[in-house]
Amino acid sequence: MKKLKFKKLWLLSTKEHKAKAISLDSNVTAIVADNEFGKSSLVKSLYASLGAEPRKIPESWKNASVSSLLQFSLDQDVYYILRFGPIFALFNENKEPIWAVSGITKGLAPRLSEMLDFNVELSTKSGGVASPVPALCFMPFYTDQDRGWTESWESFDGTGFIKGYKDIIANFHTGMRPKEYYEAKAKKDEASSEASGIKKERSILAQAKGKIDAKRSSVGIAFKPEAFTDRIQALLKEQNALQDIYDQVKLKVSELQSSRSIALEEMQISKIVLDELEQDIGFLQKEGDSDILCPTCHTLHSNDFANRYGLMNDTDACREIYAASLQNVDNLSASIERAMRPVAGLSEKISKIESILESTRGELKLRDMLQDESNRMVDEIFNSETDELDLAIGKLDQKISESNSKMNEYEDRKRKKEIKDFYISKMASFCQKLDINNVPEVVYTKIRPAISEAGSSQPRLFLAYYYAVLHTIAKYSTGFFCPIVIDTPKQQDQDDDHAETMIRFCIENKPDGTQLILASGSLHDVTIQGEVIEPQTKHSILEATQFEAVNGFMSPFIKSALQ
Known about the structure:
Layout: E1 2-13, E2 18-23, E3 28-32, H1 39-48, H2 59-63, E4 67-74, E5 77-84, E6 87-92, E7 97-102, H3 104-115, E8 122-123, E9 129-130, H4 134-138, E10 142-143, H5 165-174, H6 179-215, H7 229-287, E11 292-293, E12 300-301, H8 305-339, H9 341-344, H10 347-357, E13 360-361, E14 364-365, H11 366-409, H12 413-433, H13 457-476, E15 480-481, E16 484-487, H14 496-508, E17 516-520, E18 531-533, H15 547-561
Helix pairs in contact: 6-11, 7-8, 7-10, 12-13
């Protein structure tokens, strides 16, 4: 199993000229502060740096446009990941760039899945397949204060497009179903979706053929072109004549329309200039003989008769151009109308074609013979298309069958029972440690139950469940384990004794060798063997005093990501 651990986090707001650098090297890091001191914004930034969006982000944090740089280790390798707007960039321990992508779903998700060996293709609600977004990778390891204590597996946003994602991810992370099962399932779902579309297309094709068959009558004769050689040649001759007329008309009309467009543009421009000149003359006449000061260059211009006379000459010239353009447009419109006249006179040639189609050789009519041949060609097309669709459906059905067989190979009932029994034993033990009485039976029925407990025992029940799942992951998963991030466990007016119990439980019952980041308003006298961070500034975790140092450290990463 791969293990991911956080080492250090840098947060930077160039907009507010503030920043923060936080060391996370300890096995236990507690962030302790009252409300509105920014502790939740800090913990939300941890997995957000890896592309997992929390359900709720404070408006003040959004407005600050905070960029983040997270240093983390994956087994023995150390990396930096930068989040700068929509851009994510990964660097090695020597701060050398490995890759940079834009966006989460198509950019970051496939890269991160490959790093974590989480190459599972999941079925989307739209019928396609997608790499698991980071939120699905880290879902069991983060409990957000806004949704994590009222509904399980709801701390992250952006997961709803995956069909049945909660059960899928719970089964994957706990080892109930390994990644090979989901790879086979994704192939099955993709093939099923494609087959469904092709079957629908085949059904539409069959309906269309049925309608055509119902409306046509067959003469039942073979196509014999030699019987109508002269008539067919005459038909082709008339058809070619019609095509020639059409091509000539099309070319002529196209040329005339192009000329008319130019004339229209000339007319419009001359009209605009004419209106402006008339306004200028009207303005000068109002001013009398007084000089005019230019508002742009402040040059003084004489408003004498000579200047006004020059403008009048320009106005007359524009009127002439406008009138000429208007006449040109009218002439070209008339020419277009004349060019179209041959189209209206095609009735004679159409009558010739009708006459040829009515020609007979004995009891055989050319029209009927051509109609019957057309029907035969249509039938061939329908049959060919149907055969291709049936072949495609057969291949997809084979893929579905192979995927089903593969999925059945990984449905090990004995292993599933072992994992479930371990989860149940941990759940029972943790409920007892957290003083939860009358535990709902539903929490023991499956690995991801629907928890609907109310009152002050609800947060403790969720905590017991999350830790039971985490221990199950640590023991049975072949995937990866990430830092446990818990935000404000004291919920639902929890009394101080139970709050202390929850804090102590979080620290003392985490799986061996795992990392815990805990945000809380108070530690309730629980001693922590690790790092305690106590923000001092209300309404912001960021500090102006750290801006220069953090900005200087992050700038090379940002410049590299933008290249």
